[in-house]
Specification:
By secondary structure, this protein is of the alpha/beta class. Helices cover about 30% and strands about 20% of the residues. The protein binds flavin-adenine dinucleotide (FAD).
Length: about 450
Amino acid sequence: MKPAGIHRRQLLKVALFASGAWAVVPTRTPRAQTLRDTRVVVVGAGIAGLAAARTLADQGVSVVVVEANAHIGGRLRTDWTLGVPFEAGAGWIHGPSRDNPIRRLADAVGAKTKVTDDDSLSVFDAAGRKLPDPELSKINADWERLIKRLDDALESDDPRSLRDAIAALAPGALKDPGVLWALSAYTEFSKGGPIEDLSAPLHDDDGAFTGADVVLVSGYDKILGPLAAGLDIRLSHPVSAITTANDGVVVRAGGGEIEADYAVCSVPLGVLKAGTIAFKPALPPGHRKNIAALGFGSVTKIAFEFAAPFWDLKTQYFGIVTAAKGRWNYWMNYRTFSNSNVLLGLSVGAYAPVADRMTDAEMAADALAVLRGVWGTKVTTPLRVLTTHWSTDPYALGAYSYPRPGNRAAQFDDLGEPVADRLFFCGEHTTFDHAGTTHGAYLSGLRAAAQVAEEAR
Ligand SMILES: Cc1cc2nc3c(=O)[nH]c(=O)nc-3n(C[C@H](O)[C@H](O)[C@H](O)COP(=O)(O)OP(=O)(O)OC[C@H]3O[C@@H](n4cnc5c(N)ncnc54)[C@H](O)[C@@H]3O)c2cc1C
C-alpha cells in the first residue's frame, strides 16, 4: 500500500509549524485604534493578500485591496458549472489538523469536507492493464525507498536535480515505468515542478501539518468570505507600478494612482518573474536574484462530466502510466463524494505547461485519449468539460513555486523580507516550509500584516 498518499507533504517529514505568534486566525484586537491613521494598499486578492488585508483592517488600518482579476481568490477558485465543485486551483486541505489555519477557516464557515482516501487507488499500465495489488504495492514501496535513500545520501547543498541524483544513485528507477509514474504523480504533483528541474535535496524538505487530506464538498473558496467581508476591494485593477519613497508608497492600478503609507505585494512568483509590475526603485539585488532563481511550475486540471460512469464507483483515484511523463496520469473520481459522473484529470511536471498551451478542445481530446487507453470505447463523449491553463494566465503564470537545483530554502523566506520598511511581501512563494499551499499563503499574509503593524506602531 502507498504509505501516505499522493500529497506527500507529510510523507517523510512531518513538522509542526504553526507555533509562531502570527500563525493564528486573525481576530479583532484591543489595539484596533492604534493603527487608525495608517493606510495600506494590498496588491492581489488571493488568500495571502486577503489574510494580510483582513488582519490589518481588524486593527483599524485603512486598507485598499487592488486585484487584477474580476474576482477574488487567485489560485483558490471554485467553479460550480458542473453542479459540484471544480477547484481550478487548490483542491485539498493538506494536513487538516487543528493547527492548520485553513481547517479553522473552513470550520468557521461550516464547510463540508470529505477525507480523500489515497490508498483507494487503481493504477493502469501503458497498455491499459490494471496493475494487480502486489505490483502497485511494489511501486509504492520502491518509490518510498528511493526517496528515503536520496534523503539519507544527499547533502543539503547538493546542486543536482532530483532526476540527476536518481540517475547517479539508483539509475534503474528511471527505467522502471511504475516508479517514474510515482515520481510524477506523487512528487511532481506535490512540488509543482518536473523532476528534471526540482532540487534533489529540497524536493521533500518542507513542513506539513498532520491529518489525512480533505476536499471541501461545499466549495473551497467559501473560506474566503469572512476574510474579504467589508474590505475595500477594487477588482479589475491590474497594478502596473509600485513606487516606494521615504514617506510612503504610490501604487499605479487600473489607470489611477493610490497613495498609502505601506504596500503589501502578494502577486504570484510567476508575475514577479515576468516583471509586469515596475518596482521603483528597482527591488534590491537579493529579491531580484531570488525571484529569478526559484522555480514556478504548472499543474493542469481537466474535469469531464459523463452521462454515465464507466469506471469503478468506489475507487477514489485512478493512476495511468502514460508514455509522456506527467500526461493526465492521475484522476479523481467524484462519485466517491457526490452523485456526479465527473472525473478530474491532472497533468503535472513538464507536461503541464504543454497541456496549458492547448486549446480547450485539444486538451479534452488529449485527456480523453488517455482515458480511452484504459476504458476504450466505454469512454463516451463528455457532456461538459472544464479546463485550467495556469501557466498562460497572465495573473498567475504558473501554479506554485518549487525549489530548483541549487536553490536554498532561505531564498523563499527571504522573498518575505520587507523593502525599505515600506513594501512588504506575501504569497505562497515567500515561505519555504509551506510553499505551494493555501495554508502557506495564508500564514504568509498574517506575517506580512504583523510586519506592517510592527513598522507602523
Ligand atoms: C492547480 C493548483 C492546484 C493546487 N492544489 C492545492 C491544494 O490541493 N492544496 C493547497 O493547499 N494548495 C494548492 N495549491 C496552491 C494554492 O492554491 C496556492 O498556494 C495559494 O492559493 C496561493 O495564494 P496566494 O495568495 O499566494 O496567491 P494567489 O492566489 O495567486 O493570489 C495572488 C493574486 O494577485 C493577483 N494579481 C496578479 N497580478 C496582479 C497585478 N498585476 N495587479 C493586481 N493583482 C494581481 C492575482 O489575480 C491573484 O488574485 C494549488 C494551486 C494550483 C494552481
